[in-house]
Task: structure prediction
Amino acid sequence: MRRVRLGMVGGGEGAFIGAVHRMAARLDDRYELLAGALSSDPQRAAASAAAIGLPRSYDDYREMARVEASRADGIEAVAIVTPNHLHAPIATAFLEAGIHVICDKPLAVSLDEGEALAKLARDKNRVFAVTYTYTGYPLVRHARALVRNGALGDIRVVQVEYAQDWLSMPVETQANRQAAWRTDPALAGPAGCLGDIGTHAYQLAEYVTGMRPSQLSAEATTFVPGRRVDDHVQAMLRYANGARGMLWASQVAAGEENALRLRVYGTKAGLMFDQQAPNELWFTPVGGASERITRGRVQSPEALRATRVPAGHPEGYIEAFAQVYADAAGCIALGTTQGDEWLTTVEDGVAGLRFVEAVLRSSAGDGEWVGVE
Amino acid sequence: MRRVRLGMVGGGEGAFIGAVHRMAARLDDRYELLAGALSSDPQRAAASAAAIGLPRSYDDYREMARVEASRADGIEAVAIVTPNHLHAPIATAFLEAGIHVICDKPLAVSLDEGEALAKLARDKNRVFAVTYTYTGYPLVRHARALVRNGALGDIRVVQVEYAQDWLSMPVETQANRQAAWRTDPALAGPAGCLGDIGTHAYQLAEYVTGMRPSQLSAEATTFVPGRRVDDHVQAMLRYANGARGMLWASQVAAGEENALRLRVYGTKAGLMFDQQAPNELWFTPVGGASERITRGRVQSPEALRATRVPAGHPEGYIEAFAQVYADAAGCIALGTTQGDEWLTTVEDGVAGLRFVEAVLRSSAGDGEWVGVE
Amino acid sequence: MRRVRLGMVGGGEGAFIGAVHRMAARLDDRYELLAGALSSDPQRAAASAAAIGLPRSYDDYREMARVEASRADGIEAVAIVTPNHLHAPIATAFLEAGIHVICDKPLAVSLDEGEALAKLARDKNRVFAVTYTYTGYPLVRHARALVRNGALGDIRVVQVEYAQDWLSMPVETQANRQAAWRTDPALAGPAGCLGDIGTHAYQLAEYVTGMRPSQLSAEATTFVPGRRVDDHVQAMLRYANGARGMLWASQVAAGEENALRLRVYGTKAGLMFDQQAPNELWFTPVGGASERITRGRVQSPEALRATRVPAGHPEGYIEAFAQVYADAAGCIALGTTQGDEWLTTVEDGVAGLRFVEAVLRSSAGDGEWVGVE
Amino acid sequence: MRRVRLGMVGGGEGAFIGAVHRMAARLDDRYELLAGALSSDPQRAAASAAAIGLPRSYDDYREMARVEASRADGIEAVAIVTPNHLHAPIATAFLEAGIHVICDKPLAVSLDEGEALAKLARDKNRVFAVTYTYTGYPLVRHARALVRNGALGDIRVVQVEYAQDWLSMPVETQANRQAAWRTDPALAGPAGCLGDIGTHAYQLAEYVTGMRPSQLSAEATTFVPGRRVDDHVQAMLRYANGARGMLWASQVAAGEENALRLRVYGTKAGLMFDQQAPNELWFTPVGGASERITRGRVQSPEALRATRVPAGHPEGYIEAFAQVYADAAGCIALGTTQGDEWLTTVEDGVAGLRFVEAVLRSSAGDGEWVGVE
Result:
């Protein structure tokens, strides 16, 4: 099994998500990390590269794209793990150079930017994966398979939520680097909690149900005084088939750690998934007993292909992340995402930006119902 | 400890909630059930009375109110457990006769009816308890005490939901008596799921937080074809202090049994209560470890006075119901609800009707924000 | 439905279990409590009787047995809720008087005493219920039905445990009345934790599996200095069919409240019941997904007949206790326990004493294997 | 951070644990896998090496030890992932060649073999890690820190169990390779379930409590007809400080997946860890509320150093395994295990063999109490 030659932009010392991307790339041994522009600060870029034993370090991502594209042994794909405002320019540079892209979410800081990226990826015929991590969980995939197989019947209700408490206080003023950029509109874009975790919730619901809402009514709120972006979002959803739903995302939900939870109710049965207990999925028919489906005992091929160790040996967040990387490696090897509907791509990234834009529009309109797609 | 002389209207053979009221009245031995008009059908009334060994049976509640009021050993209080549309006329008859009232919720089928009842209870100076059962749980009371004591800080977010699946199918057309009257607007009023369980969710949130929303945006939906009332409600809430919230009630949530769950998040800590696991309450400070507070180990006097058996010996729904009855007995003995803020009364019943009215108004206005109180 | 005329011995003011027995007797309205000798202290007996509005109060249980037996409207059954050492003399007095007995466990303080009681009950042809409370849970009965129906296959392993922490400290020296008599061999008998909760664990395992061990190897330990009875028991079990098991009971298990838990594993499936979450039962086939069976959705008639309110409306310890009383009422009405195999009787009480005796014998023999039945 | 040059013996195609070891070695990027004798079948060894892109493949581990020891860029450490009977000869060959060892458990198939390995490792002054995977969980380390810090007080009771169901049927006769070697005494040694998972349970209890039992009374049982090793073990434990305990391990516990659970009770508090939910640890003081301690919010340095991602982002089995590898890498870099008491070593492997030997001895003696250490 050939390893994909990988580069990385962002993810220098002190960054959280860059290290996670590298673990994810490493776990299944489908990548070799060969080059990087780990920081926009050249000294930090060099030091970070040395610390992780990176073969080729660049000061500037544009130079990296140019040089790597010209080498016979240059990188085939780049992982973009910078603050949000740089996703689009960096992805553009690498796509232009013919290099596949694996990009963190949200895809960009505006819908226009996102749509341009999607068009460019199509034009250049490059793989463009967006790391909606939670879609990599085996039981999320099993849930999707259950919906597709009709085990739930027609879907009536979708309840999705993502609650954290780490922004309950104004930590962005207290030397918390993660908080600082995520609450700075110049770096994170106009959406705070909405972009950071609301998009995850939105995508998870779509991934499992196969449906995106046609309309939403929403309110984005900022609780912490002085904060420049929203830290709380609530929304009601309407689907084209008549289903209804609610979406809640908060970074000021005291006591919550990383509580992404999806519940889907159909005419025949309901299911529940909580990413904090990702080795179980609950399935309950109308009037019946709940079934606790565990990762690794499940036989749907979609879940099994995303599973590394047997039932009872818990897998977690890094494994889910690794699955997104493994799926991307498969697509990169084939040169196309056609045929791998399990990988979230630039199109899903654009859908996330449409959701962000719709929430901000509805919220500005005092919660009026607005179209989403 | 003197027992309160109690009568009952409704609750004949085959009724669900009447039997529960009787168990609740019996458990703590604070009542003697002496008289009843258990059914509007005289034969069924008599047979039902005989089956439970009721001393005095009446064919008609008006006659019962008149006769009992005139007896030296007549009932002091009446429990009303009929379909909703009869709550107001029956309560009126007994209040007029000077008899205290314990009434199931929703209080009435319109806000006007409810307000008239509240006025009458005040004018007659009678105790008027409304059986919001879930307020009788010791840990609900402990949660209320925690909020009052400031353990949560300022409240920012309220999430309350009540999900069931027993109306997922059109069972009202299939000889299910409970479903039949609850989905008949002539008997249940204009609100279906909204009145039946939405009001419970609304009241529980108020009971614990001490806050009612100032505005809401809502949508009531009917999923089951042919059903004449709503079976699903979703709402967003705004509170005067800037807090935000969501309320969801559904009787078509496949797989859910009786999932009433409240989460409250403040600036300092959050709490969670699920009535399906009523012997535990979760309390978590920002950034800290969750504490699983169990009934019976808790020392707040409000929780202890609602507790019968030690920690680890589960109490449940009947005990919560009994607590409402026990509290009402205490008030009846004193002839006033003044001073027992732990008992839900006709004022809470009216608040529930205001909520119902606001949801229907907002829903008719395509989810526009409307005032509640 | 006729009410059984009931008397009570023990259960005066400050007693825990007497009040629970009265709630249990009251809940389903199958009893009238008419007479009692609530305390061996005449003043306390009278005051306790007055406090609960008891019609007839006696200073002495022997007089009570004699007088009640002679009245046309005398009690039909007596509930015995005294410390253990009085169970046998009191039960003997009432049986001799032709009165049915409902007795707390352990049945007596020696196996000889217990066997004599069993013989007397047979000779007098009286109902003799022993309140193994936990057998009253609907899902315990459903578990029993599952085993009987062969859903587990042949049973291989039984794991039962009962852990508490309330005797972690020497509270018997600190004005804790419950602790004082339970740790006094003159009142509780030679077994402490073993008799108090070990017998519950032992009986629960038998009730569900239908099997009693043929041999056991055990060790009873006293952890708290100065304590006069055991506060911790561990045992290994051998069954006649080759099954193996373990039993653990402790009153010094720091942090545990009332953790009675049973797990049974067969050749086809396993089940788990935890009395602290008595509204659910876990059933898992070999290699399969766990099914969470909830009280009230279950269709086995044995579980349904012990159920009062629908699924999702939790029942608890008092309801389980009430079920034992309800079953006893049914037997008393018929004058026999023949045909109600769901009620635990004096024979089960004797089996508990055999278990106690075997554990003490094995423990004295350094854990040697000893025969049980 | 320099990577350790690693070799592997065993772990060819179709092996389960070899692939896990490789993921564990890869996750934290502390190793490069450079050489291997992946199978005793030369063709399979070569094919397996090619499939994973291994630089240097050997037909025979002896040759591998000799050649690698002679290369300047030869491996520094070898991972041994063969069936149990080969652990000792392979480890001996590499130790003799001066190469550090990372070996799966059980360490060997007899206590003599194990003690000889321990002596050789000391003589050669080589690191010898034994992969007791579950000691790598951050919350296991936090539990150990809690015990050391005295948060539990003096330990009174240890309850440890490890239950699986995958050997409920005679799968070893049905082309299940994992089952085949694990139930063949020639390959697995005289202990089946006892060696495979009983040793994990035993070691986990010691790791957290810091205590090994002084005596045990045990019974090993074989339930599946025709099976040549035990598939079920039960034991009672006595500790030198007077504590008592029970250990249960079963591979025929229908419905259980990989249920390794430890409970420790002290004079002040108790704790509970279940490896199937490894992101939480329960801590409860006598008479108090349970605290749910979650990985990543915990501040003990021992837990934090074993943590990769923040609270709420679950880690699992592979991460725990990786931690053992990371700790071993740290020791190998220093050339000693002195000072890293968090790594389980050959001494722990020997202790496991002493436990196995004691259980078999007690079981042969009808459960007599035997000395362990």
